[in-house]
Amino acid sequence: MTPKYCSTLLDCIRSGLCRHESGVGIYAPDPGAYKTFAEIFDPIIESYHTGFKHTDKHPATCFGYGSDFPNLDPEQKFIVSTRVRCARSVEGFPFNPCLTKRNYKDLECLIKKPLRALCNEHAGSYHTLGCMDSDDIQKLVDAGLLFKGKNRFLKSANALRYWPTGRGIFINKTCTFVIWVNEEDHIRVIALEKGGDLGRVYERMIVGVESLAHSLKFSRDARLGNLTFCPTNLGCTIRASVHIKLPLLASNRRNFLELAKKHHLQVRGTLGEYSQALGGIYDISNKRRMGLTEYEAVAEMHKGISALIEAECEES
Ligand code: ADP
Ligand code: DAR
Ligand code: MG
């Protein structure tokens, strides 16, 4: 039974009221807000996830097999690195604006426990943000492994309260698997590596999230799928991205963005959303996360990135 929280409409739209450059400008302060304020959330969900109608139901979890996805760039001409992430929320807890300081601490303890069981290539160590050296934090942020604190959108959504209490990062020995605790979502499971081997990165993420699923009960809605703080991450919650250089294609920004949109891809800057491309490196990923299984979302990204690389080759 999802506990009732006293979220208000203002709690949902506060960020969009403060940050007019927002894309959607709305977050769910607790899982129940998606039903309480369905009239405002459903049209936004339908628009962002390209046609996931209020009568549609998100499919059951289906990861499939990473081995179905060949290396996107075996000759290493275009792709700098590949990353696949998903989000999970722990059942029984609200989202950031309604979390108490105690909640943050309890969530971190709950999530930390199963991390100790991670083994083989996933084995690593957990670091609570409040006990980390600032230089170490900066090194991990610069490497794209740790979230940047003080995100202006999360701040305006009351998602940075009690910072850094309850926030932390699990990182494996080879820095190819990380878990973020209580950044934007309760849990982000992230696999990444240099190059374009999407299948291997995706498999690494699957093992990680399935390992957590043995110990934790996640917030999931029969219609919306996995529940997350931001409606853009609902459903399968997968964002599969490449850091990629496409100099010829990107030289005509309008055509570049149009081709990306045609393949349901989203273009971000090198340091993630709201950033610019540095050295011509773009973060390009699947945009849709609802109405597709995990496998289908990754397949959509694989097909789209392959098409962009093909178009780049045709330009040369
Ligand atoms: P998310 O939706 O996963 O939170 P963000 O846009 O907030 O993504 O970016 C989070 C971090 O992930 C940023 O530091 C960004 O540079 C990094 N990142 C995204 N895609 C890749 C990639 N393919 N390779 C390396 N780092 C990446
Ligand atoms: N501030 C929100 C974010 C949209 C999607 N990105 C997330 N959830 N990190 C906006 O409307 O821009
Ligand atoms: Mg982010």
From TrEMBL:
InterPro entries: ATP-guanido_PTrfase, ATP-guanido_PTrfase_cat, ATP-guanido_PTrfase_N, ATP-guanido_PTrfase_N_sf, Gln_synth/guanido_kin_cat_dom. The keyword Phosphoprotein does not apply. One of its GO terms (biological process) is phosphocreatine biosynthetic process. GO terms for cellular component: extracellular space. Residues 78-315 form the Phosphagen kinase C-terminal domain. ATP binds at residues 81-85, 188, 239-243, 268-273. It is an enzyme of class 2 (transferase). Its EC number is 2.7.3.3. It comes from the Eukaryota. GO terms for molecular function: arginine kinase activity; ATP binding; creatine kinase activity. Keywords: ATP-binding, Kinase, Nucleotide-binding, Transferase. Residues 1-50 form the Phosphagen kinase N-terminal domain. Pfam families: ATP-gua_Ptrans, ATP-gua_PtransN. Belongs to the ATP:guanido phosphotransferase family. This is arginine kinase. It comes from Drosophila grimshawi (Hawaiian fruit fly).
